Amino acid sequence: MQRIFSGIQPTGVPTLGNYLGALRNWVALQDGHDCIYCVVDLHAITEWQDPAGLTRQTREMAAVLLACGIDPHQHIVFLQSSVRAHAQLAWIFNCVARIGWLNRMTQFKDKAGKNRENASAGLYVYPNLMAADILAYHATRVPVGDDQRQHLELANDIAQKFNHDYGVEFFPNIEPLILGPAARVMSLRDGTKKMSKSDPSDQSRINLNDDPDTIALKIRRAKTDPEPLPFEPAGLEARPEARNLVGIYAALANTDQAGVLREHGGKGFGAFKDALAALIIDSLRPIAAETNRLLADPAHVDAVLRDGAERAAAIADPIVAETERLVGFIRVG
Ligand code: AMP
Ligand code: TRP
After folding, report:
1. Is a pLDDT exceeding 80 seen at residue 201?
2. pLDDT digits (tens, 9 = 90+) for 58-72
């Protein structure tokens, strides 16, 4: 069975983008794979996180993963900082990756913005830690949203360079799984920007814990153009906002753009938005309810995470120990 690894940062409430681009696929892939899903708190602190906020958001994110339907007994759910292997392997990868490779990362450029000199060094080497996350388990398939494609290419470059430099076939090739009609959900206010949990405008996103009225209002206010919906997907070109809403609808209704347009083509946005809001509300309601139920018993969530960390470490520790042996480190212990 192929091993899957993926991660999500506890930097806020997960959005509909996280759900459609990642979490929903994580759930579906449980059938037929060994899955390891990680709340990546080490990645979160590459940008400032208030400690109490980080603690709360980390537990909430773990609860959301369980509420979405990830089975922590059949598979593994854990926190990145609980398993030392991630940081250990990341250091080695810091010494394998080239500065030129990191300089090409568009996410670093976006996040560091104009004030690059003031970005943390961690933000710069973020992709090396992400490669370590995956390769510490010899995972071969990684379900992510479209924005992570470049990071996975870099992870493959690191694996290949390591294998080449040390003359081994140790790290496997990683296959990105970028799935579904909503692998890149865009902001509700600007169809050219991705929906993000850290966007300053709450109106730009649907949070998985938004109540039905809030969801309906955000969708009603979502930016659109004055034209009715086209009858064919080709008619969505150069209409990023329309394409985004149709993509969200398609993902939640388990169809594709063509399927949505067969049903809704020719309608104005008023009617379509009402149908879309109802679909989102119905899809998210059970997740929010289950998340709240789980958070009422934080000790249970922590116990699940403790068990996950132990089982994760049992896989990663021997792989990292072997990596260290290949590098030439002496183990005196
Ligand atoms: P992050 O929130 O950056 O930790 O991302 C967690 C997962 O959600 C990754 O697989 C991302 O690619 C995915 N993701 C984040 N935002 C979006 C979005 N707007 N559309 C689709 N996938 C997303
Ligand atoms: N960088 C990913 C994101 O922002 C999160 C992540 C960290 C990840 N480590 C990972 C995703 C390993 C897949 C595999 O979304």
Report:
1. yes
2. 999 999 999 999 999
Asked, for residue 195, whether it belongs to a domain, the answer is: no
State the CATH number of the domain containing residue 109. Answer: 3.40.50.620
Q: Atom 6 in ligand 2: which residue has the minimum CA distance?
A: 7
210 and 312 in a single domain? The answer is no
The pLDDT-based confidence of 333 (bands split at 50, 70, 90) is confident
Residue 41 resides in a domain? yes
**CATH classification of the domain holding 218:** 1.10.240.10
141 with 10, same domain: the answer is: yes
Q: Determine the residue of 4, 38, 40 to mutate for testing ligand 2's pocket, defined as the one with the most ligand atoms within 8 A of the Cβ atom.
A: 40
Give the pLDDT confidence of 252-293 residue by residue, as tens digits. Answer: 999 999 999 999 999 999 999 999 999 999 999 999 999 999
Respond yes or no: is residue 111 known to be catalytic: yes
Q: Are residues 167 and 206 in the same domain?
A: no
Strand partners, 15: 207
Q: Is the pTM of this model over 0.90?
A: yes
Number of domains into which the chain is organized = 2
Same domain for 229 and 123, yes or no, is no
Ligand 1: list residues with CB < 6 Å: 8-9, 17-18, 21-22, 144-145, 147-148, 183-185, 194-195, 197
Q: Which of 161, 193, 197, 267 is catalytic?
A: 197
Question: Residue whose CA is closest, atom 6 of ligand 1?
Answer: 8
- 47-52 long-range contacts (CB < 8 A, ≥24 apart) are 47/11, 47/111, 47/120, 47/123, 47/198, 49/11
Q: Which of 109, 114, 194, 218 is catalytic?
A: 194
CA 44 to chain centre: 12
- pLDDT confidence of 17, banded at 50, 70, 90? very high
- Specify whether the backbone of 145 is left (phi greater than 0), alpha (psi in -120 to 50) or beta: beta
The span from the CA of 75 to the CA of 28, in Å, is 12
Same domain, 288 and 250: yes
Name the band, by pLDDT with cuts 50, 70 and 90, for residue 210: very high
